[in-house]
Amino acid sequence: MVNNRLEITTICPDAENSLFTIESSEIEAQRAAAVAAASAADQHRTLPRIKILGTGGTIASKGASSSQTAGYHVDLTIQELLESIPDISAVCEIEYEQLCNVDSKDINEEILFKIYRAVSDSLQSFDGIVITHGTDTMAETAFFIESTIDFGELPVVFVGSMRPSTSVSADGPMNLYQAICIASDSKSRGRGVLVSLNDQISSGYYITKTNANSLESFNVRQGYLGNFFNNEVHYYYPPSKPLGCHKFKLRLEDSSPAPKLPTVCIVYAHQAMDSELIDIVAERCEGMVVAALGAGTLPEIVNTRCLAQDIPMVFSKRAMDGMVPNANLPKSADKSKCNIIASGYLNPEKSRILLQLCLAKKYTMEETRHVFCGVYGG
Ligand code: ASP
């Protein structure tokens, strides 16, 4: 006697996905008919509305030949880019806007706030937002947007490419197509800012560019969330936002010029480092980030110079992965006056933005330390 219905229950806490049912072929046939009927009915449902914001980058670049993968220029509009991707009319309805068309090395505060405004303005009328962006500083813009906009469940997906549009096997069109599908997929809701590149879906809060040339460029352990393959969006975990992400509510006047964030400089440590550099840079800024050695160490003489500054100093790391714990910070004689904060898992450029936001909010040292505690530093 054939067992018609066998239920296997896992201990997965996700009730919807924890029940697996293996059925007889007759029941399977009935189910297939039901699925076909449901998908026919789905044709009539309204498609998600996706806003696409173009800012430039390699994805919008052209070279002089199909083998050129360096020295190319931004030369493609978001409209032209959208013309190069497979038909998405069955996936979503799109509206697009060209915010700027620059290499991401030229993303300054004015453009950053333009992106901020465009995302904020799209929250009410769209189901998802896609931002095309150069990969060099994409992680910084993604971190800023995650830290400053409360977009609730709405997916905000950053996308770029490593090869210009003119090259053989250009990765831009597929990356853009995937990003739009990801933004349209209900499984992407409630996951914060995402970065989609090279089939991978990552957390914009943590991910960073780790390879200057390869298609497999974005990395770091705490960043990967899922994968895109053959028109399917695969997440490894249920929706969750980055733990410890401190949201800063900005109040922006409509008028230009863009507001100016406090100046925070990054100093890169190395063997035989000149400790005077710390004093020279401190004169120019309101806060400093040091890309320290290993898990936050610096020569004693440099530590002494850092402790002597009257601005907040965040110790981050040169290493791409890993973290700087509070335990590795130099100790000051007066514990309550210590101006050094550990960056936790944040790299120097993300630490810079977080410190800028803390300074803009006029947080005290203790409040700033508390913010960095969220990412296991402080
Ligand atoms: N230089 C380019 C940019 O960041 C690199 C890229 O997009 O991959 O705009």
TrEMBL record:
User: Which biological process terms from the Gene Ontology are attached to this UniProt entry?
Assistant: L-asparagine catabolic process
Q: Which SMART domains does UniProt cross-reference here?
A: Asparaginase
Q: Which EC numbers characterise this protein's activity in its record?
A: 3.5.1.1
Q: Which family does it belong to?
A: Belongs to the asparaginase 1 family.
Q: What is this protein called?
A: asparaginase
Q: Which residues belong to any copy of the Asparaginase/glutaminase C-terminal domain?
A: 264-372
GO MF entry, a single one: asparaginase activity
L-asparaginase N-terminal domain mapped to chain residues: 49-239
Entry's PANTHER family? 60 KDA LYSOPHOSPHOLIPASE (PTHR11707:SF28), L-ASPARAGINASE (PTHR11707)
Quick one: which residues bind substrate?
104, 135-136
Keyword annotations for this protein, in alphabetical order, are:
Hydrolase
> According to the lineage, what is the superkingdom?
Eukaryota
User: Reaction catalysed by this chain?
Assistant: L-asparagine + H2O = L-aspartate + NH4(+)
Q: Which residues form the active site?
A: 58, 135
